[in-house]
Structures are given as C-alpha cells and as structure tokens.
Structure to design on (621 residues):
C-alpha cells in the first residue's frame, strides 16, 4: 500500500509537468500581457519606454525558454514567484483566500452528500414511480441551473424574507461561528446543488446495480428485514462508486466557486482566479492552475486509497 | 424432410414482420422516450426563436428607452425592461441565438476533434496511445470553466462575423478530452474486430481505416456526447459572459444579462435576474434531458 502510494505520488510529477508546460506556453502564444492591461487599461497614454521598463522588471523581455526555466527552478523549490499585478508572492495571495473557499467547499460537500444519500436511495427503492421521476427532475435541475443564478435567487429570497444582504467582510469560523455560517452556507448551497444532483444520480444507479447481486437475494431469502438489507447490505456497497464522484466533484468545486464567489461577493480563490485572468497576471494564473491540477490529482489518489480502506477485496500490491 | 425449410423460414418471417411493423426511428424515439420528446420540443422552440429572432421578438433588443427604465413585466414588456429600458423578452429571444450558435459550434468542434483523437488513439495503440492519453490526463485535471478561462486568458477575443471565435475555442478545448476518453473506450472494442484487420490486410491507409471503418461505429457515443456537451457549452458560455470574459455588450447573451448592473438592481428589478436565468436553465435542462433520452434510446451502456 505504501509502495503503491509512493508510486502514484511519483507519477504525479509527469502530469504536473505537462500542466506546467501547457499553461506556460498557452498563455504566451498570443501577444498581450499584464503590462498592457496595467498601464494602458484605462486608455491612458503611456510611453513605450515605460512599458519596456516594466516588462524588463517583470522579466517578460527574456526569451521564453529562459522564463520557463526560471519558473521551473522556482517551482522545484515551491516558489511560485510574485504576482505580476500586485507584486506580492503568489503563495501569499492564494493562502489568504484559501480558508474561505475551502470552508465553502467543505460545507457544500456536507450539504450535498447529506441530501444526496437519502435522495438517491429513495429513487432506487421506488424505481419508475413518481418518486423516481421527481428525483430525476430535481437532479437534472441541479445539472442545468447555473450555480450563479441559483445563488442570485437565494439572495433575492433572503433579501425579501429577512432583508439580508451578504456581508462585505469575511468572518472566520473561530471568531464568530454563527456569523461565519450564516455567511457561507448560502454560497455552499448554491454550488452544492449540482454536486448533490450528480452524487444522487450515482447512488441511484449503483444501488440499482447492487440490488441485482446475489448477496442481496441471499440476505432477503434468509429473512433479513428489508430496512437492514438496504442499509447494511446494499447501501454500503453502493456508496463505494459514489466515493469517486464525491471526490472528483469536490476537486472540481473550484469550477462552481469561480462564478458563485462573484455573486456572494466573497473574496476567495475563485474570484482571485477570475481577477488574474482578466488582468493577464501570468504568474498568478500559472500558480493557481498548478495548485488546482495538483489538488485534483491528489484527490484522485485519495479516492483510490479510500477504495482499499472501505472494500477489503481491493488491495494495491 | 419438410422440417428444414420451415426452421429456416421462421427467423426470416419474424424479421419480415418486424420490418413491416417497425416504426420510423423518430416515432420510435418519441414513443420510448416521452421526456426526450418533450425536451426536443423545447429545443425546437429555442431554435425557432434563435433563427427567426427578427420576426419573433416584439422589440429591438438594442433599443434604449429611457422612458421605461426598469419597468416591471407588463403586456408591453413581457419580462420587463433593464437599466437602459431595453426589452428583456426580446433580449432573451436574441440571446437564444448567441447561446445556440456558441453552444452548437463549440460542442461540435470539441466533440468531433475529441472523437477523431479518441479513435486515432485506440487505432494506433502503443506509444502514440500512451502519449495522447497523457495529454488528455493533463487536460482532464481541470473543470470545464477553469480550463476555458485559461484559454480565454491566452487567446483574448477574436471576433469573426460578429462571433467570438476564440470563445468557441475556449469552450471546445475542455470538451475535447472528455469526448476523446469515452470514444477511445468504444473504439478499443472495434479495433479488435476482424473487419479492421481485414481492412489493414487489404492495404488501406490508416486515415481510411480510421474514418471509413472505425469512425462510423462510434457514432452512437459521439452523438450522445455531442448533445450532452451542448448543454455544458451553453452553461460555460453563460458563466464566462457572466464573468465579463465571454460575449460582450451590447450583444444580447443570457449570462451577460445577469452580470454587471443586473446585480446592482436586483433589489428593485428582480425580473432582470429571473428571466434570463430561467432561459439558461431551461435550455441546459432541455439539452441534458435530450442527451439522456438519446443515450437510453441508442445504447444505455454509454453513460456520460
């Protein structure tokens, strides 16, 4: 198991290297960089010399290969460089916003999984009845309704009912748990709806598959209560494939956060990402892309390891 | 002695009876997939609105009318007006055109290139397959919207005939690896078929085998992925436009209608938020449902 884990961690390196090459050169194929946005963004006239000077300061005048080499040397020592826009270290920019986004992601996961398990189970148990159809509509709704619009609807409702508006500043959970949760639960629900839908669909289909297994028939034949059959025999086995979906969707929550943080005025990594894209802040984009990819690969590994933990039949040797 | 012709006749007769009673595929689809048919009607309405916007919409979507700023829904303005007094209903109708053009083309480009890559990867196998799969692994490490944003950052806007081609590329690129994965899996099982060996033995070129012998057999997963990703592409376009990095003003686009001053006015004019979002949701819903139905109808094995 340890050997397997180490092996997988080593295999991360070529994938991440690929990500690095891809994002680095993709950002630089078309002319245009942060300096133009920064100095000419408002239409002001700035002399060519000032621009050249700024480029030189940021190292954008060096040949691509040299720039890439510099970046890679930094990466090897976990130095992501400085943001080209703010001049603050990329790691610092990300770290200050990570707590908020991570908390929204965890809340979203909790909400989604807690709703998805009963929803998926009911749909499987009452297959092809109105319950199943209702669940199908709810889940396809989750796949269709954009999280940012859902977030806006939540805000309009809260505004109408409680005259509540999202606070401008973020309150950490250890400072004031109530204020923190009332602030973050709504964006969590907004991004969690899709997550919940995907998970519920997976649970439904894997439960239906498990129900046709021999051991379920055996359990029923020996007179086990149906409740126990579902809870102990079927659900436990059906949740295994759901773990994959839960893990991958968790790794991909950043996709929802990118837009939802904008709606709720949260200063998280999603918003930072959009900002860095609209500012052409290459170093920041690169740093965030590397982290998102690394996180995805790691979550994948954790999911595979969890499989072995939950299912004794699976061993990685 | 007379047994032999009868036993041969039975399957032939059954086949004949089947072909006589077999309904048209479209009728069969509607009968088997009522939800699919309903979603097809929704898609049809949307396409109609998108194609004939000039005739269907009651107002010009770009007409600014300061006399009726932020007017609530009425007979004159079914969905109200926005902060410039523009008719929201008309903007939604024209927005259908934007959503469909970008949704269709980006899903088509992404799915088609992805399918070709998937089939080629399966056909060549070995080292080429390994390399292609590594690249696909890299591309799959990102959510659609994040990868699209990176491409937007790289390419900026490139307007050709009033359509942002780079936006289409930005949405097509994240679709490509997802389709390639699924199509490759389907193509792997076709690669070992005797007729592929036969074609190779006959000396046909790789291109010919890939396009003439293998590609037609992965049409089912391709079509399923293509429809499913139209929904994703519409959603991605709406998200990018909402972030101000997709379609730009004054072009009517659903995501764009939700951004900018829409969020400033939602207290006084919630209809500015409600209707465009509903349009996005219904469109994505229809394509998702249609994709699902198409999958169940064509082949339940290919789950997206």
């Amino acid at each position: 198991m340890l050997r397997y884990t180490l092996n997988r961690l080593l295999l991360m390196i070529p994938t991440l290297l690929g990500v690095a090459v891809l994002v680095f050169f993709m950002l630089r194929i078309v002319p245009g960089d942060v300096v133009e946005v920064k100095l000419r963004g408002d239409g002001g006239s700035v002399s060519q010399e000032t621009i050249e000077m700024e480029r030189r300061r940021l190292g954008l005048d060096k040949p691509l290969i040299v720039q890439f080499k510099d970046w890679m040397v930094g990466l090897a020592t976990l130095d992501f460089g400085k943001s080209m826009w703010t001049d603050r270290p990329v790691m610092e920019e990300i770290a200050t916003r990570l707590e908020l986004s991570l908390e929204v992601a965890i809340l979203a996961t909790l909400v989604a999984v807690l709703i998805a398990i009963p929803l998926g189970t009911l749909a499987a148990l009452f297959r092809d009845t109105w319950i199943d159809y209702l669940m199908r509509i709810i889940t396809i709704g989750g796949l269709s309704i954009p999280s940012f619009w859902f977030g806006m609807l939540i805000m309009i409702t809260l505004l109408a009912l409680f005259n509540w508006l999202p606070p401008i500043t973020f309150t950490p959970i250890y400072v004031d748990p109530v204020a923190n949760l009332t602030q973050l639960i709504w964006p969590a629900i907004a991004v969690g709806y899709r997550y919940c839908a995907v998970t519920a669909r997976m649970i439904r289909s894997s439960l239906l598959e498990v129900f046709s297994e021999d051991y379920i028939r055996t359990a029923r034949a020996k007179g086990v209560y149906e409740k126990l059959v579902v809870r102990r025999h079927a659900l436990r086995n059906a949740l295994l494939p759901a773990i994959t979906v839960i893990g991958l969707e968790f790794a991909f929550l950043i996709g929802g956060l990118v837009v939802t943080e904008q709606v709720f005025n949260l200063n998280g990594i999603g918003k930072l990402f959009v900002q860095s894209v609209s500012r052409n802040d290459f170093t920041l984009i690169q740093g965030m892309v590397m982290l998102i990819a690394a996180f995805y690969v790691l979550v994948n590994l954790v999911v595979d390891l969890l499989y072995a933990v939950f299912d004794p039949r699976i061993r990685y040797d | 002695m007379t047994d032999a012709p009868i036993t041969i006749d039975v399957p032939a007769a059954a086949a004949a009876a089947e072909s006589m009673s077999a309904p048209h595929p479209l009728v069969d689809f509607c009968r088997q997939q009522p939800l699919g048919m309903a979603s097809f009607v929704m898609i049809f309405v949307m396409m109609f609105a998108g194609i004939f916007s000039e005739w269907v919409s009651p107002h010009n979507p770009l007409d600014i009318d300061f006399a009726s700023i932020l007017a609530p829904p009425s007979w004159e303005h079914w969905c109200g007006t926005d902060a410039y007094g523009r008719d929201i209903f008309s903007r939604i109708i024209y927005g259908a055109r934007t959503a469909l053009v970008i949704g269709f083309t980006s899903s088509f480009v992404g799915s088609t290139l992805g399918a070709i890559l998937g089939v080629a990867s399966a056909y060549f196998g070995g080292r080429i397959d390994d390399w292609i799969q590594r690249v696909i692994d890299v591309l799959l490490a990102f959510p659609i919207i994040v990868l699209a944003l990176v491409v937007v950052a790289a390419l900026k806007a490139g307007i050709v005939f009033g359509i942002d081609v780079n936006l289409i590329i930005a949405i097509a690129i994240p679709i490509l690896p997802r389709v390639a994965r699924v199509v490759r899996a389907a193509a792997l099982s076709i690669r070992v078929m005797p007729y592929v060996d036969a074609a190779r033995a006959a000396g046909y070129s790789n291109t010919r085998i890939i396009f003439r012998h293998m590609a037609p057999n992965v049409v089912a997963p391709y079509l399923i992925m293509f429809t499913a990703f139209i929904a994703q592409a519409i959603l991605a376009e709406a998200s990018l436009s909402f972030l101000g990095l997709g379609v730009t003003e004054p072009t009517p686009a659903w995501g764009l209608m939700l951004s900018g001053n829409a969020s400033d006015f939602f207290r006084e004019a919630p209809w500015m938020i409600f209707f465009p979002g509903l349009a996005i949701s219904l469109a994505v819903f229809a394509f998702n449902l249609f994709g699902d139905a198409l999958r169940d109808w064509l082949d339940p094995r290919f789950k997206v």
Remarks:
- Residues 65 and 167 of chain B are 30 Å apart (CA to CA).
- The first strand of chain B starts at residue 159 and ends at 160.
- The beta strands of chain B are 159-160, 163-164.
- Residues 88-124 of chain B form the longest helix (37 residues).
